[in-house]
Amino acid sequence: MSEQIIGWDREQMAQRAAQDIPNGAYVNLGIGIPEKVVRYVLEGREVIYHTENGLLGMGDAPAPGEEDPELINAGKKLVTAIPGAAYFHHADSFSMIRGSHIDICVLGAMQVAKNGDLANWSTGNPDAIPAVGGAMDLVAGVKTINVITQHVTKKGYPKLVEKCTFPLTGQAVVSRIYTDLAVIDVTAEGFKIVELAPGVDFDYVQERTGCTLVAA
Amino acid sequence: MINKQINSVEEAVAEIHDGATVMIGGFGEAGSPIELIHALIDQGAKDLIVVNNNTGSGHVGLAALIENRRVAKMICSFPKSANSLVFPDLYTKGEIELELVPQGTLAERIRAGGAGIPAFYTATSVGTPLAEGKEVRNINGRDFVLEYGLTADFALIKCLKADRYGNLIYNKTARNFAPVMAMAANTTIVQTKEFVPVGDLDPETVVTPGIFVDQVITVSDPLHESVLVNAGESYP
Question: Testing the interface with B: which of A67, A90, A123 to mutate, by most B Cβ within 10 A?
Answer without folding.
Answer: A90
